[in-house]
Every structure is written in C-alpha cells, then in structure tokens.
User: Which sequence fits this backbone?
C-alpha cells in the first residue's frame, strides 16, 4: 500500500472583489497517493484551477488545510503546467526549458545534463536554439513539460495542458506526456474537460460539484490494456463503462443548477 | 547571390518584384519633384517680388547664407552644441524614466499616489517652464539640458509604466509557479516583454528632447540652433532662420 503525498481536509476558499464574494471551494476533501495519476473533472467555472493554485501555494486557504508528505518529511517540490505553454518568444528553447533553474539559481552541471537528456529523450535536441514560434504545438507542450520537470518536482499539477492543441496532436501529446510522467515516477493531478483523456490517462477520476467545489464522486480506473498507447486504453472493455458513468455524473451536476 | 535568388523564383514573382521596385522609384522621384517645384516657385515669387524677400527670403539667399556659415564654421558649432545637449537630455530621460517606471511598477501604492501628479506635470506647457528654469538655474548648458529633460520625462514615465502593466498576467504567474519572486517577474517577463514599448518611447524622447533644448536655447543661450533662430528673428535677418527651419523639419520627422 503506497502512502499519501498530499491530503486536503475541509478546505474553503473564496475570491473577494469590491463587487462581492465568490465562494470557489467549500469543504473539499481528498488525498493523493505517491505516484498516482489523478484526473479532476467538473462543470466549468466550478473552482478546478483554484484547487491547483491552492496546492501550488499561489493562494492561501481561508479554512482547512493541505498537508504534504514529501520524502524525508520535507515539503515535496511542486511543478505547475498551465493551460497554454507560455514559452517566451524572446528566449530560445534551451533558455526556456532552463528558466526555472535560472530563477532558482540551480544551473549546476548535473541539472543541465538532466535537461539535455530529457530534450534528447523527447525529441527536442535539434530545436534547442530555435524560437518557440518555430515549433509545432505538440513540441511546445513537450518543451513546457521539460521546463516544469527540470526542477525535479515530486508533484505535477496540469491545468488542461492539452486544450490548446488540435484533436490529432492532442491524442499523441497527451499519450506522450502521460508516458513521460509515468516514466519519471511523478505524482500528477490533471484537470481536463475531456473525459476520454481522464479515463485513458489516470488511475483515479474525481468528479466535482458545481461551484463552490467539493468532491461529488470518484472512480478508480482499472483498464485491461495490451500496451500503454492511448488507443489501447480506449479499446479496453471497461473504457466505455467508465466514460458513461462519469458522463452521467457530470451532466447530472451540470443540469442541477 | 541576388541574381541567383531571382533566377530561382517564378516569372510571376519576378514581375511582382519588378513592379514593386518601379513603384518605389516613382515615389522617390515624385518626392524630389515636389521639393524642386516648391523651391522654383519660391525663388520665382521672390524674384518677381510677389512676396517680400526681406521677410520670406528665397532659396538662393538661403543657400548663400548657408555657404557663408559653412565657410566660417559657425554653423557646425551651433549644430554641434545643440546635438550634444539633445543627446545628453535624451540619455538622461531614457535612464531616469526607466528607473521611475520600474519603481512605480514595484509599488502599486506609490503609482496610485503619484498618478494625478504625473498627469498634471505631463500636461503642463513645458515652454512655460523654461523661463522659470532660467531663474532657478541661471543660463548655461545645464539649464538647457534640464529644459530638454522636462519636456520628455513625464510622458516617458507614464507610457513606460503603462507598458509595464500590459505584461501578460499568465506569464507572470508562470514565473511564480517556477518559484520566482517579484524581481524575477520583472526581469524575466515585464522587461523583455516591454522592449518594443521602450524602443518606441526612445524614438519619441529624442524628438521631444530636441524640442525642449531648442526652447531652452531660445531663452538662455549664446550658442545652438535655438539661439540662432532667435538671434536671426531679432535682427530680422531671416536667412539663418530659414536654414534652421529646414534643418529642423528634416531632422525631426525622421525620429518622430
Ligand atoms: N481572480 C479572481 N477573482 C475573482 N473571482 C475569481 C478569480 N478567479 C476565479 N474566480 C471565480 O472563481 C470561480 C472558480 O474559478 P476557477 O478558475 O477555479 O474555475 P475552473 O473550474 O478552473 O473553470 P474553468 O473550467 O473555466 O477552467 C469562477 O466562478 C471564477 O469566476
Ligand atoms: Mg480553469
């Protein structure tokens, strides 16, 4: 039995503006196991991105808490991948993927060597001196992932990282990135609107309620698959059952306004 | 090289490039023609006494005066001093406005407190400020440089600060997800993203610094183009004045 890396208990959060208060999260509880791939789905605007910002420490909870159980008691490193790749056009790919190391003054030889290995493994070595605009959408997303992984985070937060890609690219890139995350043995929290992506990539799917968000239901995903390709996940006999159940939960929630 | 490049492309492309060049040649020629026409008309009017050449001068008198001033080298001294003052004011405006805009970006409170004052200072007619500067600082190069700075600085601070605030919030958020502080947000996102704003601001500054320097020289100088304009208008010797209007009118638009 693997242990928890992250536990959220009775979490509350609201945004305050002059025009009023928006309760985004109310009494949220869930935990994530080390090495688990967790997908989060929910009605739009329900507070999914807010949850990631709270975990990343960009926002402070109003009540309740987030407890981390990192290796040797330290707070685990957290990597956050945003919806759009946000590669900087004024830097080449190499300067982009090492941005995090630059900011944290960690451009040591072993760290840079590791980044080079990742670039090589994910087919970007020939593009290190190119500008982001010279890369395809899928390549850019892989570069953004390497930028995040360069800091060796234990937990990866992914906020709809594939939604800006066209369908074809999206299938291959999401499979690629799923594979990379498994290979690097990271814990991942993926927010997505695409249920097939959620079922085929994750070990567990959380369905959230309307705003203020809390967990409505959760599904543990066990697919009988022949290999780790996205197609084989989609061909698994259990796949459509999971898809339909999650779909029903979600549309039930969306119609309950 | 160029030849092989054109050989490589299709006939239609070659036609297009030829037509493009022809168009530009035509535009250039017509521009020169307009200038010549103007000079000829002016000279003719002065000759036939349709206009009073005492007040309006004439191209030939401008040219001879210009040559005189070239011969005794006084023109170059005046141009040189004005250029120097303009460059110094421009460099100071650029450095100071970057510094001030950075401070305003760092502290939202400070920028909100100072905003109305900046707007007022920027809308002040700067030529009205020049006589005060002379009273406070005396005449001399320093006063004129400060007059140059005063015309450009407030607008520069406002537009740089506005430019800094336009930086993509998601890119700023990315820096924070990578563990960056406000300093990193500024150095890695705000500053590089504002390079176009900074450059276009510098172009405006050099023009405004020149305007300020000329205004300063009108009032408090023994040298420079501004002094020359005032001197010639006072002694009603319009010739140098016209040379200058000509120099200014070719110099300014190039940078504005
Ligand atoms: N900075 C903010 N100030 C005020 N309200 C905000 C702010 N950010 C988000 N909200 C509100 O909080 C709620 C939750 O926002 P959040 O971005 O977490 O939703 P989401 O589930 O990620 O939405 P989406 O599916 O569109 O990505 C929304 O109703 C939104 O309008
Ligand atoms: Mg969101």
Assistant:
């Amino acid at each position: 039995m693997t242990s928890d890396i992250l536990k959220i208990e009775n979490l509350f959060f609201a945004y305050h503006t002059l025009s009023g208060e928006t309760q985004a999260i109310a009494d949220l509880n869930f935990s994530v196991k080390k090495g688990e791939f967790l997908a989060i789905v929910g009605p739009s605007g329900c507070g999914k991105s807010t949850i990631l910002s709270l975990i990343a420490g960009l926002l402070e909870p109003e009540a309740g808490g987030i407890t981390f159980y990192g290796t040797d008691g330290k707070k685990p490193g957290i990597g956050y991948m945003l919806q759009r790749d946000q590669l900087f056009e004024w830097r080449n790919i190499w300067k982009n993927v090492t941005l995090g190391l630059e900011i944290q003054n960690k451009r040591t030889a072993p760290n840079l060597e590791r980044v080079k290995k990742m670039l090589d493994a994910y087919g970007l070595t020939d593009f290190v001196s190119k500008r982001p605009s010279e890369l395809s959408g899928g390549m850019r997303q892989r570069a953004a992932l390497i930028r995040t992984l360069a800091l060796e985070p234990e937990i990866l937060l992914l906020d709809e990282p594939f939604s800006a890609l066209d369908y074809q690219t999206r299938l291959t890139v999401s499979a690629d990135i799923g594979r990379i995350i498994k290979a690097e043995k990271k814990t991942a929290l993926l927010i997505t609107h695409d249920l097939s992506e959620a079922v085929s990539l994750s070990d567990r799917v959380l369905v959230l309620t309307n705003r203020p968000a809390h967990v409505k239901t959760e599904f543990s995903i066990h697919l009988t698959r022949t290999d780790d390709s996205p197609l084989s996940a989609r061909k698994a006999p259990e796949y459509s059952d999971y898809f339909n159940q999650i779909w029903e939960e979600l549309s039930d929630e969306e119609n309950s306004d | 090289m160029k030849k092989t490049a054109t050989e490589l492309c299709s006939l239609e492309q070659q036609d297009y490039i030829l037509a493009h060049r022809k168009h530009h040649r035509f535009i250039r020629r017509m521009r020169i023609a307009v200038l010549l026409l103007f000079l000829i008309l002016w000279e003719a009017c002065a000759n036939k006494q349709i206009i009073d050449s005492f007040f309006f001068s004439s191209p030939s008198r401008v040219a001879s005066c210009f040559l005189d001033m070239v011969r005794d080298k006084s023109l170059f001294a005046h141009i040189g001093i004005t250029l120097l003052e303009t460059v110094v004011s421009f460099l100071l405006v650029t450095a100071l406005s970057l510094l001030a805009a950075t401070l305003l970006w760092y502290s939202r409170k400070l920028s909100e407190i100072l905003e109305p004052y900046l707007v007022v200072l920027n809308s002040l007619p700067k030529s009205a400020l020049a006589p005060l500067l002379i009273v406070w600082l005396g005449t001399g190069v320093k006063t004129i440089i400060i007059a140059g700075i005063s015309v450009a600085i407030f607008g520069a601070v406002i537009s740089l600060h506005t430019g800094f605030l336009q930086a993509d919030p998601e890119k700023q958020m990315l820096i924070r997800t990578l563990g960056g502080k406000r300093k990193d947000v500024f150095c890695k996102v705000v500053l590089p993203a504002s390079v176009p704003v900074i450059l276009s601001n510098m172009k405006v500054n050099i023009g405004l610094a020149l305007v300020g320097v000329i205004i300063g020289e009108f009032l408090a100088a023994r040298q420079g183009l501004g002094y020359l304009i005032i001197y010639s208008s006072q002694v009603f010797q319009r010739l140098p004045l016209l040379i200058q209007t000509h120099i200014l009118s070719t110099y300014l638009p190039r940078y504005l």
User: Anything to note?
Assistant: Strands of chain A lie at 4-17, 20-33, 37-41, 63-68, 78-81, 155-159, 187-191, 204-208, 215-220. The first helix of chain A runs from residue 48 to 56. Chain A touches chain B at residues 56, 58, 79-80, 82, 84, 86, 88, 90-91, 99-100, 102-104, 147, 151 (CB under 8 Å).
